[in-house]
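Assess this:
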Amino acid sequence: MLQTIVGGIVGTYGWMLDHLFLINIVFTLIIIFFQRRNPTTVWAWLLLLYFIPVLGFVLYLILGQNFRKDRMFKMKEIEGEIKYAVRRQEESIYRKKLRLRDPELDRFKRLILYNLNEGEAVLTDNNDIRIYTDGREKFNALLSEMDHARNYIHMQYYIIRNDELWKEIEEVLIRKARQGVEVRVLFDSMGCRGMHHSDWVRLRKAGIEVAEFFPAVLGKLQLRVNYRNHRKIVVIDGRIGFVGGFNIGREYLGKNRRFGYWRDTHICIEGSAVTSLAVRFVLDWNYAAGENLFLEDRLFEIPTYLRGGRDPVQIISSGPDSHSQEIRNNYLRLIHMARKSIYIQTPYFIPDDDIRDALEIAAKSGIDVRIMIPCKPDHPFVYWATYSYLGEMIEAGARCYTYENGFLHAKCMCVDGLVTCMGTANMDIRSFSLNFEVNAVIYSTRTTGKLMEAFENDITKSTLVTRKKYEQRDFIIRFKEQFCRLFSPVL
């Protein structure tokens, strides 16, 4: 029996080698003619298939499959209410009745309208926003807010590590579940591959509902390395919402020697924008769990807000289920609308051609373009591709920095001190089109000013990469940049 199985495997492998040229042609035809892809991405896959035939074939099966569908997630009962609110705001904008407290923000009404039309992102203006750039402060705030939960806690993270931080959070979740609070935890299978099945069983036994996004096959085999749910959302009682860059793990507290201090950006929102985060969570939960939480009216009741916030916010999201790259398009539109300054913090800087050109034009037009990336890689291929694009920005006149006080993981763009787009999406092609992401667009001089202050404080802990410094990099770094950049569309 064993000899038969081994013989079959050897025979299959031999057949693949004998017909490798034909297999490559078939996949080439599929990539070119049967999948609508960016031409740059097409050429990257063709290079892999040509230069690394066997490995390229396997990588295409794992990474290159296109799981894009027309609206994977569909709103049901709540859809009509959202569309009604969207149509009312559209009418207000067209009739010039929409009033923003700051007259300087009027020029961003077209962006508000785009988000309404494309993503049904309702603008709410009663939001109080707290900013967290330190992991311990963020998780202390999260633990405190969860401890005050009365109705439900909805938690969604890309990465959850089974360490001391998760133990703190798990303890609160179990205690609240025993008090009758509805607790749901949604996790990404790839990001949480270090967790064990018994960890989730323990939560379920405690009365916590758990769902897995794009689960692995046979326990650990990941066939969908792409199309991961990269969102980090917590919604508590429909009143409090958290969104941003922090995952759950000891490294996010600065306890990993490899990375050192972890500099990230997360926000806590109290106000009507939390309802949009709640809807986003439920859409993902319904898909992963096979339920329809939109039937549960209590999850969408309007709570009493304790803080009197005044920040206008739209919650936008994008992913393989979207018709357009909404977060990427917001970045692009904001760059085009900038008049004075553009501040960008991102761990990975791999812009597509349009965003790269827009930033270069802005810098050459005298706009103060500043870009900050980490000084060390967590993913070497992505980092060296990032560094190559940074060189082009320096050449265009942008001021570019490498953060030296640990690892920079913040995902944030501030424009003219007026508008911020921040959340889970990096400034890279993967976040634009392959991952499921969520961002907040904040139309507020107060909040944007605070985030710009944080950026300027980070400059004191960073190194300015001058044109001279960049040109002095050695041959090895130049080789890494060029090699990694070839495959940047599929990184």
